[in-house]
Sequence to fold (457 residues):
Amino acid sequence: MPEVNLDQLRTRIRGEVIQPGDSAYDSARKVYNAMIDKRPALIVRCVDVADVMAAVEYGRENKMLTAIRGGGHNGAGLGICDDGLVIDLSRMRSVRVDPAARTAQVEGGCVWGDVDHATHPFGMAVPCGFISTTGVAGLTLGGGIGYLSRQYGLTVDNLLSADVVLADGSLVVANEKQNADLFWALRGGGGNFGVVTSFLFRMQPVKTVYAGPTFWPLEQAAEVMKAYREFILKAPENVNSFFAFLTIPPVPMFPANLHLKKVCGIMWCCNTSADEGAAATKPMRSVGKPALDHVGALPFPAVQSIFDPLYPPGLQWYWRADFVKELSDEAIARHIEQASKLPSVHSTMHLYSIDGAAHRVGQADTAFSYRDANWAEVIVGVDPDPANKDKITQWCKDYFDALHPYSAGGAYVNFMMEEGQERVQTSFRDNYKRLATIKKKYDPDNFFRVNQNIKPA
Fold:
C-alpha cells in the first residue's frame, strides 16, 4: 500500500481512516454475526458522499478488495473482508421525512430503527424487515421482505430513487427516468453495482398495528401448518404474519411454564384496528389449543424492535434459505422432524409470507425474481457460545438439505451464506443475464465483488 496515497486519502476524508493497531480497529471490524472474524487492511468510516467517492477511488487505484458496510447485519459477513478496504457508512444516518409528498430520504448507513423513529410520528412507515437494527441498504438492495410485504409489497417496491457512487468514483442518480437500467438492478440485485449513499422511499400509512405471537405445542405443528398454508393465502392483505419453529426463551414476557419449550408459532402484524385484527386472525388463532395467544395493539416501531433483545450483535449465526411456492404434507413432515432437533434457544426456522402485493409486481419488473413464491424460508442456527458453532451449523445444513427438494430452487440473497456462483444464479433466475449485462456497464472490472456476486457479462 503506497504510504503517500494513504496520506492523500486522509486529507480527503472528513470521517475516520482506521488501520490495524488503531484503538478503534477491533470494534470497527466487528459485524453482527460473531462467526465472522475478518481483518481488513483499512476501514474508512465515511460521513458524506465525498468521503465515499474518495474511498472508492482509493480502493480502485490500489487494486484493493473492497467491501461495503451499512448496518453490518449480512449473515455471510459480506460487509467486511480480509486484507482489503471496508467502506463503512455507519456514520451516515440522516433521515428526512416529507409528509406532504409521503417520502423519506434515508442515508445509506441507517438502520431501520432510524427510519421508524423518523416516520412513525407522521403515521407512516417504509416497508422493511423484522429487526430494527438491520441495515437499510443491505435489506433494500436484496429486495426487502418484512412485516408489511403482503399489504405494501417489498421494500424495493417502495423505492423511488437512489444516489449511487459507481466503481469509477462518480455519483449518479438512479430512478425510473435516470439510469433506469441501474435502478432496475438495484431493486433486488444486491450490492453489485455501487455504493448507495441515499435512498428515497415512498412511505405507507402504518401507525398502531394488531400484533404479537400465537404459540402451539410442537405436537400440534402438523395441524397448524396445514391450516396456515390455506389461511394466509386467503387472508386480507393487511393481515401480515410469519410462521416459526422456536424454543420459547426464558424471559419475563413469556409465562415461566413455557420457558425452553419447543413450539410452533405465528407472529402477527396486522395493519388494522385491534377489533378488525382479532376478527381477521381468529380462524387461525382458534386452530387446535394454543399454548399462548398474546396479541394486541402495538405501535409499529415496537413490533419492528420486539426481537432486538433476543438477537443482539455478537451471536454466532449460520444461515440457509429457500423460496417456497407450496407447503406439501411431505414438506410439513420434514419441517417437524427437523424442528424437533432445534439445537439452541436462539435457533429457529421462519416462513415469511410474500404473496399479496408482492405478487402484483412482475418477475422481470425488478431484479428480485421470485414474485411467484408464497414464502421465503430461512433456517438459522444461532448461539452465543463459539463452542457451539459446529453444532448449530450442522443442524442448519441438515434442515436445509431435508427441505430444499420441496423448494422453488433459489433463495432470498439476504439470507444466504457464501454458497457459490451456481446458487447465486439460481436465486436470480432469468434476471441473471440482464443483471450481468448491467454489471458490465456500471462495474466492468467487478470492483464490487464482496457480495452475492453477479459477474460482468
User: Anything to note?
Assistant: Residues 389-403 form the longest helix (15 residues). The radius of gyration is 21 Å. Residues 179 and 198 are 15 Å apart (CA to CA).
